[in-house]
Design a protein that fits this description.
InterPro entries: COBRA1. With 553 residues, the chain is mostly helical. The protein has three domains: 113 residues, no CATH class; 211 residues, no CATH class; 115 residues. Helices cover 65% and strands 1% of the residues.
């Protein structure tokens, strides 16, 4: 407990023990020890007996003086560090040399830690001693840990890893939330709100202004994205940069070549739309990538692969297509639309680019613009035509029935092209949000076979199940239930555990609306196989619970 005192020429308990063992007059020896090691203030000696008369133990008095002096010294250390004296760090280093031998003493340790915290560069030897001692490492300030981490990537990785895992768990819990709502879904929180999350704040604090640590975190995120293909790592990459931007950490923001692009894109995500002015800015950044700096495309593609960025780009694309329809214009004539597709293509190709280390914008398939989008617009026109037809007086109506098939080009591109598939899926979400039952029944069967099974991804199913609550009354019809379940969701639920869970989320919300006879069949279909040790579970507020599905009556 009092290790280090002899090094500084101060007596400790062992010295007192030895003195008392070897002396002939113990009381005199104690008086002498107190005189030599007490507070060296002549006027105090005559005042101490007064404390004795009041029954105040000497220990209590010395402890209170010690506590007061410690607080004053710690304040003084902070004042010196914040001052402008050229020799301020020399003073702190001298104090560190004197106090460090006592670092294991609980009462002195805060002073040593305060000095270490305020030193811009802690001597290497001291850093190694702190790192080698688990207890010291645990209690030292993050400012000291940064100096340790920057030369110990493995140790930094051990600190960061649990946070990255926690971040992914939180994102997946949000996607499987039992709260199905159109108003509050995965994409509802604003960028600024998301950056107040525990993991982002902790990582931001751990990095501070240290560019080396920031680069390490980015490398961890790239590696994990490559290993898992989990797009939430792309979200964290963007959130981390913008969190540092919020704190005005220019030391990092000024050296990250993606900063201004991310800042502009962040404003678009906040508005859930890319307007013409910001579109020009974003295009300027992409066109401004100079020869020899192509590697920045890897980071830009990762930022564009963030689901929040992708959501904004596709929503803007669908809105753009609606405007083109109202103007009788073609997709190929819209520069804004072409830029949105270019950014979508770059984001969708992030994994391939980082994996291959070939930093080149993926070539966009022009037929997406000249064939797929017109085919999708023809579906919109079919829908408008049928809606107008229904509103006509009976004598003016033709025998027009709602089309049930889709243009071959639409189905083929949704199967073969990543960008086309993403746009197609968002169009389905768009019509679900509009409560368009006919269009939904027409389109859902086409989603059984999509590029890389994107229609069975958690983000799309999370949004679709939320929007389907708007059509809750339609679930009383067998035709609609068949379209949603038999023709789409149930085609893959047995091979995809996540689809099973999304089906249960939907039924947990809509069971009272679903046709009773159909509900009974669904219950049997969705029942977990016998080899399951326990009942199927659903993520509710971050915890797995067994849903009560015995409600069809």
């Amino acid at each position: 407990m009092f290790a280090g005192l002899p090094e500084l020429g101060i007596s400790n308990g062992e010295d007192l023990k030895e003195t008392l063992t070897n002396c002939t007059e113990p009381l005199k020896a104690i008086d002498q020890f107190q005189m030599e090691n007490g507070i060296l203030l002549p006027t105090l000696q005559s005042a101490l007996p007064f404390l004795d008369l009041h029954g105040t133990p000497r220990l209590e008095f010395h402890q209170s003086v010690f506590d007061e002096l410690r607080e004053k010294l710690m304040e003084r250390v902070a004042t010196i560090a914040e001052g402008k004296d050229e020799d301020r760090y020399i003073k702190l280093e001298e104090l560190l040399e004197k106090s460090f031998p006592l670092v294991k003493m609980p009462s002195i340790q805060p002073i040593v830690m305060q000095v270490l915290k305020h030193l811009q560069k802690v001597p290497e030897k001291k850093l190694k001693q702190v790192m080698a001692d688990k207890e010291l490492y645990k209690v030292c300030a993050v400012e000291v840990k940064r100096q340790i981490w920057q030369d110990n990537q493995a140790l930094f990785g051990d600190e960061v890893s649990p946070l990255l895992k926690q971040y992914i768990v939180e994102k997946e819990a949000a996607l499987f939330s039992s709260d199905l709502s159109v108003l509050h879904n995965f994409f509802s929180p604003s960028p600024k709100t998301r950056r107040q999350g525990e993991v982002v704040l902790k990582l931001t604090q751990m990095i501070g202004k240290n560019v080396k640590l920031y680069d390490m975190v980015l490398q961890f995120l790239r590696t994990l994205f490559l290993r898992t293909r989990n797009v939430h790592y792309c979200t964290l990459r963007a959130e981390l940069l913008m969190s540092l931007h919020d704190l005005d950490i220019s030391e990092i923001c000024s050296v990250d070549p993606c900063h201004k692009f991310s800042w502009c894109l962040d404003a678009c995500i906040r508005e859930k739309f890319v307007d013409a002015k910001r579109a020009r800015e974003l295009q300027g950044f992409l066109d401004g990538v100079k020869k020899g700096q192509e590697q920045v495309l890897g980071d830009l593609s990762m930022i564009l692969c963030d689901p929040f960025a992708c959501n904004t780009l596709v929503l803007s694309t669908v809105r753009n297509l609606q405007e083109l329809l109202s103007q009788d214009a073609l997709p190929r004539d819209s520069p804004d639309l072409l830029l949105l597709l270019r950014m979508l293509s770059l984001g969708q190709g992030a994994w391939d680019m980082i994996d291959s280390q070939v930093f080149k914008e993926p070539r966009m398939d022009l037929e997406v613009v000249t064939r797929f989008l017109p085919a999708m617009m023809s579906i919109v026109v079919d829908d408008y035509t049928f809606t107008v037809e229904q509103k006509l007086p009976s004598e003016e109506k033709s025998s027009l029935t709602y089309p049930t098939t889709l243009p071959e080009t639409f189905s083929r591109y949704v199967q073969e092209n990543r960008v086309a598939c993403e746009i197609g899926l968002y169009y389905v979400l768009h019509i679900a949000k509009q409560r368009n039952k006919n269009a939904l029944q027409r389109l859902l069967p086409a989603l059984v076979d999509t590029y890389n099974d994107m229609a069975f991804g958690d983000i799309f199913l999370h949004l679709l199940t939320g929007y389907l609550t708007l059509l809750s009354d339609e679930f009383g019809s067998e035709e609609f239930c068949t379209a949603v379940f038999d023709n789409f969701l149930l085609t893959s639920f047995s091979s995809k555990e996540n689809v099973h869970r999304h089906c249960l989320r939907l039924l947990n919300h809509l069971h009272q609306k679903v046709l009773a006879s159909y509900m009974e069949t669904l219950m049997k279909t969705l029942e977990p196989p016998k080899q399951f040790e326990g009942p199927h579970q659903v993520m509710v507020q971050g915890e797995l619970v067994t849903p009560d599905l015995e409600f069809a009556g």
